[in-house]
Amino acid sequence: MTNASLEILSIADAPWHDVQTVFGTRGDPSSCWCQYFKMDNAEWKTASRATCEPRLKQQVKDLDPAPGVLAYLDGEPVGWCAVEPRTSYSRLNRMTVVKSSPEEPDDDSVWAVTCFVVRVGFRKRGIGRALLGGAIDHARRGGARVIEGYPVDPAEREKVSSAELYHGSVSLFAANGFREVARPSPDRAVMQLDLTE
């Protein structure tokens, strides 16, 4: 990515058409809009872009700070990272991987990174690492004490598709200063960054 300008912005500071560009019209991001961890099973069964996109748009309007950051490469929107207080994710708090966290489930000072989206054509260019760095800054400004991620460890799986990497990878989190605090399964870790240190 030499000579390229990479910028990370709060989703609240981005035009909505840039958000639509990142989430796209194909694949999981285009239908989920980072609502999976916020919906119960019944809601999720009937969810679609038509229901999820307006929910994210309303969350951006209602929440301060907003629920994530966008990446721009030379002015073009290329990626997204969801980060907000872990208590905002009702489904996440019921998942086995999160239950292995040493943090209390109702602690608003614990933030979670739940999702990365990097557009096809812009992958393997350091955008995920920059997004995570921007998510850390965003959480710090929002008052986070700890940030958690629940990444995949590709070294522990025979094969990992790009779709499965929406959680991020263990190496990505480690490169941004996170340390492993739990390993609920061989291929999934709980990684934390303590912002008080």
Automatic annotation (TrEMBL):
Signal peptide stretch: none
InterPro entries recorded: Acyl_CoA_acyltransferase, GNAT_dom
Keyword annotations of the record: Transferase
Name of the protein this chain belongs to: Acetyltransferase (GNAT) family protein
GO molecular function: acyltransferase activity, transferring groups other than amino-acyl groups
SUPFAM superfamilies assigned: Acyl-CoA N-acyltransferases (Nat)
Pfam families: Acetyltransf_1
Residues annotated as domain N-acetyltransferase: 9-196
Cited PROSITE patterns: GNAT (PS51186)
